[in-house]
Design a protein that fits this description.
The protein is mainly α. It has helices spanning about 5-10, 15-35, 75-85, 90-110, 120-125, 130-135, 140-145, 165-170, 175-195, 200-220, 235-250, 255-275, 280-300, 305-340; strands at about 45-50, 55. It has a two-stranded antiparallel ribbon with strand order 1-2. The protein starts with a helix and ends with a helix.
Length: about 350
C-alpha cells in the first residue's frame, strides 16, 4: 500500500506520521526494556514543572524557576505511566479514546457481541443514546406509541427530560466503522491541540461541543423517531473547527496545519451529507469550536491569563461527564426493574 498517497488524500503530513510511528515504537521498546532491566535502574522520585519543564523535588508544589503551580507526585507518575502505554497521545486524547472504546465494550457486554458491527436502536437507547422522543416530555401513551411496543413504560416511571443523554450519547457509536473513523480522527487532532493549547482547553471544548451538537440535532429531529443519536463526531467537529480558527488567527506559521484541518472538516461534512449522518450535530459542534478557537487565540495574546478558569471548567466538564454516565446506568437498571415488576 502506498501510505504516502493515502496520507496526501487525507490531508495528513506523511513525514510527521512516520516520525510519530517511530516515536510510538521507541516508546514501547523503552517501556519493555525498562521492565526487563528494572533491577539495574536507580529510582529518582521527582516532579516536573508543567510550564518550564524544570525538574523539582517530589514534595514541591510551586516551581522555583517560573512560579507555576505543580501537581502532586502521584498524579504526575500516573500521567507518565499512561504516556508510556500510549506515547505521543496522552493524556486527554488517550482518556477520550479509552472512554469511547469502553462505551462500545459496555454495549457489547450488555447486549451482545453483534452490537460491534450493527447495533440496534433499542440497545443504544438503553445505554444512553440521545433520542428526541426521550429527551422531550411525553405521556406514557405517547412513548408506547412512538416505540411501537419494544419499550413499554409503566405509569409512574419518569421517562421525560433526560438531560443527561446530551453527554452520554457522545460515548456510544453505531458500529465498527463509526467508532473506527471517529477514533482515528481523534488521534489526529487531539494531540495537536493538547500540545498547543493545553489539556483543560481541549477537554472543555470537546465536551461542550458534544453537548451543543446533541441539542442542535434534537431540535431538528422528528420527535417520533425511535433512532437514537450517538457518536463523538460533534465533539470532533468542535476540535477540528477550533483548530482551524485558532491556527488561522495565530498567523502564517500555522497556516499549513490550518489547511490540513480544513480539508478534514470539508471531507467530514461532505461524507456526513452523503451517508445521512447527524449533520446538524456536526454543525452545532463546529459552532462551539469556532467560538472557542477565536477566544483562546485572543487569550494567547495576553499571556493565557485565564488558565485557572479553564482548569475549573475542565473539572466541571469531567464531573458532568462522569455524572451523566452514572445516571445512564441508573436509568437502565431502573428500566429493567420496571419490566420485571410488570411480569
Amino acid at each position: 500500500m502506498d501510505w504516502k498517497s493515502l496520507c496526501d488524500k487525507l490531508g495528513l503530513d506523511y513525514t510527521r506520521w512516520q516520525w510519530r510511528v517511530l516515536r510510538w515504537r521507541k516508546g514501547w521498546e523503552d517501556c519493555i526494556d525498562g521492565f526487563r532491566h528494572k533491577e539495574d535502574q536507580a529510582t529518582v522520585q521527582a516532579n516536573f514543572c508543567p510550564e518550564c519543564r524544570a525538574m523539582l523535588g517530589k514534595d514541591e508544589k510551586v516551581c522555583e524557576h517560573c512560579g507555576a503551580r505543580v501537581s502532586g507526585h502521584a498524579r504526575q507518575v500516573a500521567g507518565r505511566t499512561l504516556e508510556s502505554l500510549l506515547p505521543g497521545v496522552t493524556p486527554v486524547t488517550s482518556l477520550l479514546l479509552l472512554a469511547n472504546i469502553g462505551g462500545m465494550l459496555l454495549l457489547m457486554l450488555a447486549h451482545g457481541a453483534d452490537q460491534f458491527l450493527n447495533p440496534d436502536g433499542k440497545s443504544l437507547t438503553l445505554m444512553g443514546g440521545l433520542s428526541p422522543a426521550l429527551f422531550n416530555q411525553f405521556s406514557i401513551a405517547d412513548y408506547n406509541t412512538i416505540y411501537r411496543g419494544w419499550m413499554q413504560f409503566a405509569e409512574g416511571f419518569d421517562v421525560g427530560g433526560e438531560w443527561w443523554r446530551v453527554i452520554s450519547y457522545g460515548y456510544l457509536h453505531g458500529g465498527f466503522w463509526h467508532i473506527g473513523f471517529n477514533l482515528f480522527a481523534l488521534t489526529v487532532i487531539g494531540p495537536v491541540l493538547e500540545n498547543e493549547v493545553g489539556r483543560a482547553r481541549t477537554f472543555t471544548v470537546y465536551t461542550l461541543s458534544i453537548v451543543l451538537a446533541g441539542i442542535a440535532q434534537v431540535m431538528v429531529s422528528p420527535s417520533y423517531s425511535p433512532v437514537p443519536i450517538v457518536g463523538a463526531s460533534g465533539g470532533l467537529f468542535g476540535l477540528l473547527v477550533f483548530g482551524v480558527v485558532y491556527m488561522h488567527l495565530y498567523g502564517s506559521v500555522m497556516h499549513a496545519q490550518r489547511n490540513a484541518l480544513l480539508r478534514w472538516v470539508l471531507f467530514a461534512f461532505i461524507a456526513g451529507f452523503a451517508i445521512g449522518a447527524a449533520n446538524m450535530a456536526h454543525l452545532g459542534g463546529a459552532v462551539v469550536g469556532g467560538i472557542f478557537g477565536f477566544l483562546v487565540e485572543k487569550e494567547r495574546r495576553v499571556g493565557n491569563r485565564f488558565s485557572r478558569a479553564w482548569n475549573s471548567l475542565a473539572v466541571l466538564c469531567l464531573v458532568a461527564t462522569l455524572g451523566c454516565m452514572v445516571l445512564s446506568l441508573i436509568w437502565r437498571s431502573a428500566f429493567f426493574k420496571m419490566l420485571e415488576a410488570l411480569g
